[in-house]
Amino acid sequence: DAKTTQPTSMDCAEGRAANLPCNHSTISGNEYVYWYRQIHSQGPQYIIHGLKNNETNEMASLIITEDRKSSTLILPHATLRDTAVYYCIVRVVSGAGSYQLTFGKGTKLSVIP
Amino acid sequence: DAGVIQSPRHEVTEMGQEVTLRCKPISGHDYLFWYRQTMMRGLELLIYFNNNVPIDDSGMPEDRFSAKMPNASFSTLKIQPSEPRDSAVYFCASTPFEASPYEQYFGPGTRLTVT
Fold it and tell me: Which of its termini does chain A have fewer beta carbons within 10 Å around, N or C?
């Protein structure tokens, strides 16, 4: 699985868009980008995933660069409840495998009133 | 949808006692995962099931740990006997799609403390 690099921490003003970057320069053609977050004392929460096209759901948007070496998770209107550690992971989706999620250090996003 | 349900939310027990953690996955989800999380080791996959059948238990630390899934709506993780190093938060997760196995939905976790 490709290695990912994320900033350690970020601040965002409440109501503004939060843009969380992730570098995955060694990503291969069949690897997907997944984003999760973990709010303090809660379980990890799936946010979104994509292969090469931009994706949007009710929680966030995922922008993947054309060369797929980096991506950005966008929370369009951050609220205090979005304060969490955000994890970007890269995985090959196939019929085999352990399906284990392994989180790195992630980005601690603090939404400020 | 109620999401993944885990019980108990907190468990404090003495070394040597048996501990049973319970999980109800989201209805219709084919896969169920048991993880544990500690500050030192991060998130570790213990075992996962597909259609109630254990597929990969290579993450189960030792014979003291066992997991069952008697039906599609219930799973248990049992530790017998428990040890202080088993103290962790144990998460259950489920996913509906074989095509996106990493789209996992986690429960709130059981915080286990073994004294």
Answer: C
A92 interfaces chain B, CB cutoff of 8 Å: no
Q: How confident is the model at residue B62 (pLDDT cuts 50, 70, 90)?
A: confident
Rounded to whole angstroms, the Cα distance separating B107 from B57 reads: 20
Q: Give the per-residue pLDDT at B24.
A: 98
No. of helices (H) and no. of strands (E), chain B: 0, 11
B89 within 8 A of B112, measured Cβ to Cβ: yes
Q: Which of residues 82-101 of B touch A (CB under 8 A)?
A: 91, 93, 95, 98-101
pLDDT of residue A22: 97
Separation between Cα atoms, residue B68 and residue B53, nearest integer Å: 9
CA dihedral sign, ordered B58, A105, A27, A63: positive
Q: Which residues of chain B from 2 to 41 reach within 8 Å of chain A, CB to CB?
A: 4, 31, 33, 35
Minimal-distance CA residue of chain A relative to B39: A105
Share of chain B above pLDDT 70, in %: 97
Token duo for residue A48:
């979104």
**Amino acid A25: pLDDT:** 93
How many CB atoms are located within 10 Å of the residue B88 CB? 20
